[in-house]
Amino acid sequence: MIRITRKYRFSASHRLHAAALADEQNRELYGKCDNPYGHGHNYEIAVSARGPLDPRSGRILDPALLDRLVEAHVLRPFDHRNLNEEIPEFRNSVPTTENLAAEIFRRLETHWKSAFPGNGPSLEKVSIAETPRNIFEVWQIHGQA
Amino acid sequence: MLITKRVEFSASHVCRSPLLSDRENQELFGAAANPYGHGHNYAVEVTVEGNPDPVTGMVMDLKKLKDVIHREVVEVYDHRFLNHEVPPFDHIVPTAENIAIDVWQRLDLHLSKDGSRLHAVRIFETPDLYVDYFGGAA
To answer: From CA A79, how far away is CA A70, in angstroms rounded?
Structure first.
């Protein structure tokens, strides 16, 4: 098995606050992350694709095509944005990095086949570092893709 | 249990396939097809799987692991033009993917013995681009 991983960065702000919980409970649960004015991070995401190796090029994929996909569906919509206010999916769900990782995975999965048609590479994993110390991973479950 | 050793080397390469025309190579590989070559600071992470020895408490002697990687990979690759100086890249395109497979083949015999097994080879072409190879069909 062979896999390629490419890293990208974007900066965004968010507030962790669950609508279903009382203010007091939110403060207890999310602490400083519940600050109503929001706060920001430099997110680093790593997108991994699983082979086959293309015998013609000796590569799993053309990194320029992956760049274009990530640029169009992740970096452009998310970079220098307020995730709660500007990303529709976070109007009703909390932009924790778990939910953010799942949303990025979903967006890439949705557009994957138009970037890489046929029996080419498959999306294997999205990992996000919210800070260098907090890292979240979403993996493709093979056989269900 | 997995243990990983990291080493670095610097080398130049050209990404062009002899099976393709100049134009096709240019389209496929872009700037990497420049026939004069260009270079990277590569990093190699070698992961070995095994159980800690009950006496030594080690999966594998890290000094031995380092020596094998230096002898079989760093001394072969470091400060070389891969296409011209490191077979099989005289006839295989030295992409990070193919380097990962070649490094695996150079190390597997030396590391998959005495109860341990080569688990993965990770090749960083840049800090933002890496390939993992786990053996078998790629």
So the answer is: 11
**B55 touches B131 (CB < 8 A):** no
Range of the domain at B27: 2-133
Chain A residues inside the 8 Å CB shell of B100: 2
Q: Over pLDDT 90: what percentage of chain B?
A: 93
pLDDT, average across residues A128-143: 91
Residue ranges, chain B, pLDDT below 70: none
Summarize pLDDT for B97-109 with one digit per residue, the tens. 999 999 999 999 9
Q: Coil, helix or strand for A49?
A: strand
Strand-pairing partners, residue B5, are B46
Q: Residue B116 carries which DSSP code?
A: -
Task: Give the domain range for residue A59.
Answer: 3-139
Find chain B residues with C-beta within 8 A of A59's C-beta.
Answer: 93, 95, 97
The total of structural domains in chain B comes to: 1
Asked if B132 and A53 count as a contact pair (C-beta separation under 8 A), the reply is: no
**Is residue A19, in this structure, part of any structural domain at all?**
yes
Tokens of B25: 């190579």
Q: How many domains, in total, are found in chain A?
A: 1
